[in-house]
Amino acid sequence: MDKISDKHNGYLDMELLRFTTAGSVDDGKSTLIGRLLYDSKAIFEDQLEALEKASINRGEEQINLSLLTDGLRAEREQGITIDVAYRYFATPKRKFIIADTPGHIQYTRNMVTGASTANAAVILVDARNGVVEQTIRHCFIASLLQIPHIIVCVNKMDLLEYSETEFEKIQRDFNRFSDKLDIKDIRFVPISALKGDNVVDRSINMPWYQGPTLMFLLENIHISNDQNYIDMRFPVQFVIRPNRDEYHDYRGYAGRVAGGVIRRGEKIMVLPSGFTSAVKSIDTMKESLDMAFPPQSVTLTLEDDIDISRGDMIICPDNLPVTGQDITLMICWLNEKPMRPAGKYSVKHTSRDVKCIIKEVNFKININTLDKNYADKSIGLNEIAEISIRTTQPLFYDSYRKNRITGSLVLIDEGTNETVCAGMII
Q1: pLDDT exceeds 90 at position 357
Q2: At the fourth CATH level, which superfamily is domain 2-225?
Q3: Looking at the DSSP assignment, which residues form a beta bridge with residue 410?
């Protein structure tokens, strides 16, 4: 694994951490991200000038850092976040992609889309309000999406005179319900996003807190083991046949490594045909590699001429995914139109496109109480449920817990071509 990490750093120079922020309305998510960017010197001068001007126009006494992420006019007017806002920045240690997701109940789907690729989730709790229903909801979604690392930021500590007692109470309340969920790593940080306490710089107002700042955690949290390096999975996205004399016989299979490590000379199998061969080369735009691993995008060539097309999967013959048409999923419904009982939808799974029928709704989750409702079979916008589907052709998949890429899919309405559902395979 250390060799893989070394190679990873060699190819990509710096590790990339994707993290999402979540919390109730006015918990200070946008202010926190603004503070991270501001204190880590990741704001350009012209952005800073525009920020100062916008803050003055709003009649505010100091720079309003939340305006950095609330880019939509409707959000600025209401002072809330209503869509997922992505921000990119880097420090000398890491590159970051932030997904700032909404706090309102009706935007649960936005958190699902924003958090689906995250390594970590930063969940904000207002120190004055403590753990509320939205905190439980966001924690449950983070658990459902198998986000490996949760950082709970207890914000607005300045409004409680930086009380250690209040911080410890929130910690106990959070742990009481999070013990029921599948979360591997939870950290707690007392902060003030407005004042900057424990965000990038250590707070002098909370000497009782000896733990790391939020930025230190983001820069140093261990994520190299978050990928599945055991089960080789390579969904073929495109077959490359250059129409040039120097590459006359070249036939390459392009895609992104979804799991495991692919080595030159290694025996492989192609699904669904079952034909076997060996990896002849692993090519990128710049060079040929000895090995490839998630999340690299590469082109493979094989020793034998095999009929392979988009949607096929290259795997290790000794480590097969599940192949099947009857699949059970945890889903979040993303569309205003409710799910149709026994409805027909298109399925996109890795690079494979098939059709399916909804066989059954097994139960819905009440994400305020985490209870299962077996009686109500109607699924509407933002609701989370377990369903069973049957596909027209077999899919090659793993459980979402095992592999977040081969274990996820989306359903698409054939009439409108809208993505209506995000699914995690059980």
Answers
A1: yes
A2: P-loop containing nucleotide triphosphate hydrolases (3.40.50.300)
A3: 348, 422
